[in-house]
Specification:
about 210 residues, 6-stranded antiparallel beta sheet
Length: about 210
């Protein structure tokens, strides 16, 4: 068994950083950005967000019309999560053109080729995590699904921005020996991010009790 590794750090956003537009290609829906659901208007779904340069967590899925023989149908995938370095320039999350049901199914079965197209003409391949929900309404509450993933991975946000996974490290060896690095504040935030609602409430009560001592 390999050593288990969890890494967490806190990104401090420089003041005065300008926002760029992050958009999506055809039939790609923005779902959650930095842990918050992307709100759509009554008439249309949100197709872009304004984000400052730096690391952000973005969740999207393919959801659009494709041809299935002589008919047109909707093909929807599971959500895909990116830990994305947003550049200074406007950028878009894109896929190869998918027009038929068979083409779309084959593409996602072998592993989708997500890319970031940047306004300066360059492209960047994107690593991703396919999110897996449970039950009949597995993806009805995307914020909760992403929150569960972040808690399991020890991911947190500072001032609304995604973390950079570098600072706090917990290693567990094959013999069960635990080695912890990183400053105390980073460690506290790591474990707090992994706690459930009841554990966070109990910790808050304990912190309040310490203030009176």
């Amino acid at each position: 068994m390999k050593n288990w590794l969890v890494v967490v750090s806190l990104l401090v956003l420089p003041l005065g950083l300008q926002a760029a537009t992050l958009s999506t290609g055809k039939n790609i829906k923005l779902l959650v950005v930095d842990g918050k659901k992307v709100e759509s208007s009554f008439w249309s779904e949100a197709e872009s967000v304004e984000l400052p340069e730096g690391k952000h967590q973005v969740v999207v899925r393919f959801d659009g019309e494709v041809k299935d023989g002589s008919k047109t149908t909707i093909y929807t995938t599971r959500p895909y999560l990116f830990e994305l370095d947003v550049p200074k320039e406007d950028a878009a999350i894109v896929l190869p053109r998918l027009t038929t049901m068979s083409q779309a199914k084959a593409h996602f079965q072998r592993g989708p080729e997500w890319q970031l197209e940047i306004a300066n003409g360059t492209t960047r391949d994107l690593d991703y995590v396919p999110l897996q929900g449970k039950g009949f309404a597995a993806y009805s509450d995307m914020e909760a699904l992403v929150a569960d993933y972040n808690r399991e991975q020890g991911i947190t946000f500072e001032q609304g921005y995604a973390v950079d996974l570098e600072q706090a490290t917990v290693e567990v060896s094959d013999k069960g020996e635990v080695k912890i690095s990183g400053d105390a504040l980073a460690q506290l935030k790591l474990w707090y991010s992994k706690a459930n609602t009841e554990e966070k409430a109990a910790f808050s009560q304990w912190v309040d009790s310490q203030k009176s001592q």
